[in-house]
Design goal:
Elements: H1 37-55, H2 69-72, H3 94-110, H4 116-132, H5 135-149, H6 157-174, H7 178-187, H8 193-204, H9 207-216, H10 219-225, H11 229-243, E1 246-248, H12 249-256, H13 260-267, E2 272-274, E3 277-279
Antiparallel strand pairs: 1-3, 2-3
Length: about 290
Amino acid sequence: MAYRQQKERPSRLKPPCIDPLDRFGLVSKGDESLLNHKTQEDYFNTITTRYYALAGPPEGQARDKDGLTTRLASLSLNQGTLSAAQINASSPGMPPIIMAMRKLREAIVASSRVDDFAKTIYVFIVRTTILLGHPESYHPALLHLIRRIHSTGLLSKEEETEFIGYYILDLACRQHDLANAFGVRNTYDHRSGRVDMALMALVHGNWVLFEKAKVAGNTYEKRLMEWAGGRMTDRVVQCLGKTYLSVSKAYVEQCTGMKWESLKDSRKLLWTCEGQTVVIKQTKKI
């Protein structure tokens, strides 16, 4: 008996729109589709394309024809790839990118890949997530870059100094672990005037020297030093309180880097402001 072939009717349902960053899962959750090296490279280009669409490409650099890989390993140390005041880890569109970076990191480690491409990925992740202020991303990436990739000789002397310096600053500024910071400095025989200046400032509570270190530091060092900004502001307030009976409002704002109203509210100061003068201690009238 012959059957009449029926023409397939087009489905009325639209195919689901899947974000390219969501195509793969975490290796730690059992998804092994990112273990292929070519797939990793394609996924990396997807990540960087999305990232630079939000943050903008590095100044003076244009997109290349076959992706962004060729220019990512040498992001400028003094020109940030984003406006730190406008974009951070919680900005719209950024969380999926950060999660994609984690997926790629896990895939690189699981596939035991240690080559120039792996180095490029980790350099990119460390630098971008430092700017985004996301230690959950840059801290493990820094450790892998220093302990695993650096041991194969893939990092140049300049890169070694740069990333070990970031690790030291993260220990000292964010984790408030000066002992380990000096330990890492001695272990790797790290020598950097800017990093040493920041360490000495933190040890002695020298906020003037700390500001000099921030001015001298590159984009990423400045961002890492911001983690210690609150402690140094407290130190400034302590010094002003012990030194002056009254001081100009402009000077207080210059030293702390904060507006007077914000400083008073955040530190719960009992100081008063009379015109353009901040009264720290009231003198007794005789």
